[in-house]
Specification:
Chains A, B: This is BetI-type transcriptional repressor C-terminal domain-containing protein. Chains A, B: Pfam families: TetR_C_6. Two copies of one chain form a homodimer. The first copy, chain A, has about 210 residues and is mainly alpha-helical. Chain A contains nine helices and no strands. Chain A has two domains: about 55 residues, Arc Repressor Mutant, subunit A (Orthogonal Bundle), CATH 1.10.10; about 150 residues, Tetracycline Repressor, domain 2, CATH 1.10.357.10. Helices cover about 70% and strands about 0% of the residues of chain A. Chains A and B meet through helix 6, helix 7, helix 8 and helix 9 of A and helix 6, helix 7, helix 8 and helix 9 of B. The first copy, chain A, binds a DNA duplex (30 and 30 nucleotides) through helix 3.
Amino acid sequence: MTTSTGEPRRRRRPDERREEVAQTARDLALGDGLAALSLRSIASSMNVASGLVAHYEPSMEELTASTFRHVVAVELTEVRALVDDAPTGLDRLDRLVTTLLDPERDALSTIWADAWSLGRRMPLLARAARESMDSWHSYAREILLAAVAEGSVRTTEPDLVALELFALVDSTTAYALVSYRTPKERNQLVRRALEQALGLESGILARRA
Amino acid sequence: MTTSTGEPRRRRRPDERREEVAQTARDLALGDGLAALSLRSIASSMNVASGLVAHYEPSMEELTASTFRHVVAVELTEVRALVDDAPTGLDRLDRLVTTLLDPERDALSTIWADAWSLGRRMPLLARAARESMDSWHSYAREILLAAVAEGSVRTTEPDLVALELFALVDSTTAYALVSYRTPKERNQLVRRALEQALGLESGILARRA
DNA sequence: TCATTTATTGATCATACGATCAACTATTCG
DNA sequence: CGAATAGTTGATCGTATGATCAATAAATGA
């Protein structure tokens, strides 16, 4: 049973409903992970029949993949907003790491971990993951190139270091999901490694944590 | 229906059966991941009623956690066997990385990714993951300390570098599950990062890949 | 106001899950 | 050889999944 005094069940325009389904799926995924997405869980969040959700989505795998894609794209936009206006390249790098490792962010970490785990069996999700990773990678690359240009960091392989940055962040946030090590230790790990990758004086990033 | 000419259903001693259940669960996990473990999937692999599996296991979460624990412990033993007899500390480090990144190993990668993903909802699995990670960490630490002692690598924080090693390996193997980057790129990434963490001449590890 | 369109429902199918337990039967022991 | 022991079955309960579709009812236009 839904709410006893159920609203008289409104009828919406297809694109409106489509958007509502997508939004609900995103909220659900952010709350309980990609594995929590089901026709019924989404439908019940919308107070709607499960058939309606199915009516708008070709398959659960597609819905899962597109939800992942959208959630991660929004996150990238939000992180940019927090990072891009920092004064120097080093500040931006610092803020990027701080933001990505923020414990408040573990809803996102869950989603990434789900993507890697479920991706093995869901090709569409795997594809979405690859493409999203490329977006993030090119953002980190952009930040690193700027920092190199201003002379605050030094590397001959910004692409590789950008990859390394996410390798460190991704594993570290996955560790957080099982409470391995403390936030402080995980932060230290990432920052010390980045210092070495970027020819920074020891502690210059770590001290900011 | 099982095989039509079913064997006359043997009765085994409890510890024998217990071991058979555990072994079957391990094989299944190695084939299809931790998420593929269910009373019925295990029972059907054994040609046995699902109730039998339940009879020997307190709960699926416990079975999942203990299966994970065992699979990962065996893996550590196997890796040690491949690595420990290398002549120098640097050789052992090289072999460790090579082995951990071996594409043949992706059954194990799946299991680790499953553990981080499922661990958020399965406390016993999360605990098993933490403890297993500690075992692996202390093994890497051991290798690094020996390499430091022989003077082939240099670091003031072997614990941190051991953590970093797995951070790189774990993310990289998760990437492999969704086919992000090539084995070669993933290898490069880990090796270049380790070189910098260990004060090694550029390429000294990477060239071995 | 009535007819047309179509968003939405709700039931249904086939399948899967963990868990529980009385009944059955293979084995062992007296 | 018969009885006690205990490993094993198979059915069952409650719940969950994705997918499909006829029927319904809300909105729109004539």
